[in-house]
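2024-03-11 09:14:02 DEBUG pipeline.ingest accepted 1 chain
2024-03-11 09:14:02 DEBUG pipeline.ingest length=127
2024-03-11 09:14:03 DEBUG pipeline.predict start
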Amino acid sequence: LDNSNTPPKNSAFEVQTELTLTAHCLMRNPKSYSAWYHRKWALVYYLTHPTDGNVVGGPSSAEEGPDAPKVHLNSMGAILQSELDLCVQFLQLDERNFHCWNYRRFVVAILGSCGSTTSACTAVQHA
């Protein structure tokens, strides 16, 4: 386990790996607080660290080009839509799963802020 404060390089693939892992955990226990919390952490981390320290809407490096934050938001929108689909599946199994309802509310809040501002981090900072 690496205890350094330097986060690993971020990519959509790595976030997808975290989401896949927690989805398998949730299939075994749909009311696992830690699995839902880790999914939320993975989304927050991906949204606030799109590439090596650049924040969505912040200055981008010359290699990435000026459209890098926009591409990141498009990718995030697709990930968030698939998260809503996952919530639908788990709520069909048990509509009383408040962990899933809380997670769904979090995802919807991020989706709402992605469409209304250039920086989607505002919803995450208040979550």
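2024-03-11 09:14:41 DEBUG pipeline.report Residues 52-63, 117-123 have pLDDT under 50 and may be disordered.
2024-03-11 09:14:41 DEBUG pipeline.predict end
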